[in-house]
């Protein structure tokens, strides 16, 4: 396991951040993952052990609670399941893996799951890369690419096929303007990274429509539009339209750790809620080269 260095800037003081739109959302999951630990609202053993993230949050001069409100378990659930899936993917291969993390923001997953051998590629918009470099410590096996995840033609050939690749697109696809960029991205990953896997989440149409009308998370923060929506009812048809892609497994947000979201866990037992209302966590696979 890689030691956890501290995140520092040159002054040692708290860092002021000025972001808006989609780039500002990189602060959202950081707040919920770290802030939830102090609420006592979920079982202690189901929280994330992530001291590096806590240190990063403490270094940022930003009104997290005023913008994002009371910490919610959803981002912790998404991160914990992603950790487990990456570890599982590494365990089934007899050689080091590569992780491609799309739109990674200030996620500290590398330090939570690193087995001492994996290569990690962070792909994010330039402002995301710049903020990671400022707030997170350098890692000898972390390569960074400043690009849009929805323009895979600009970067897919740089990823490499010499290692099995796990792609994380957690918290990304809902910001696509419609389904076409998502389909193109997954098809490009399937062609460029055969035999790999991909993990992503989706929101339901009712929530997407709220963001398009200007969803007030708190009086101080309006979520950016999230146009792309997908629920279990449409998942099979969506997957059938992406060459080389298949769904390995899907969950509602409550399924992996039901004690963290007990109300959704109970509601998800209702077929209509599960198929049409609940947001999804999805593990997909890419057809291997014959």
Overview of this protein structure:
With 290 residues, the protein is an alpha/beta fold. Helices cover 36% and strands 18% of the residues. It contains twelve helices and eleven strands. It has helices at 21-24, 27-35, 51-59, 64-68, 74-91, 109-113, 126-135, 179-192, 205-212, 232-240, 262-267, 271-277; strands at 15-16, 60-61, 98-102, 119-124, 142-146, 165-169, 197-202, 216-218, 221-222, 245-252, 280-286. The strands form three sheets. It has a seven-stranded mixed β-sheet with strand order 5-4-3-6-7-11-10, with helices on both faces. Strands 1-2 form a two-stranded parallel ribbon. The radius of gyration is 18 Å and the shape is globular. Residues 1-11 have low confidence and may be disordered.
Give a quick set of tags describing it.
single chain, two-stranded parallel ribbon, disordered N terminus, globular, 7-stranded mixed sheet, 290 residues, 36% helix, alpha/beta
Reconstruct the topology from this structure.
Layout: E1 15-16, H1 21-24, H2 27-35, H3 51-59, E2 60-61, H4 64-68, H5 74-91, E3 98-102, H6 109-113, E4 119-124, H7 126-135, E5 142-146, E6 165-169, H8 179-192, E7 197-202, H9 205-212, E8 216-218, E9 221-222, H10 232-240, E10 245-252, H11 262-267, H12 271-277, E11 280-286
Parallel strand pairs: 1-2, 3-4, 3-6, 4-5, 6-7
Antiparallel strand pairs: 7-11, 8-9, 10-11
Concise structural overview:
This protein has 290 residues and is of the alpha/beta class. It contains twelve helices and eleven strands. α2 packs across α5.
Q: Distance N terminus to C terminus?
A: 35 Å
* Overall body shape: globular
Cα radius of gyration in angstroms: 18 Å
Biggest beta sheet attributes:
7 strands, mixed
Secondary structure: helix percent: 25-40%
Assign the structural class, choosing from mainly alpha, mainly beta, alpha/beta, alpha+beta, or little secondary structure: alpha/beta
Portion in strands: 15-25%
Spell the H/E element sequence: EHHHEHHEHEHEEHEHEEHEHHE
Low-confidence spans: 1-11
- The beta-strand count equals 11
**What is the average of the pLDDT values?**
92
Which strand order does the major sheet show? 5-4-3-6-7-11-10
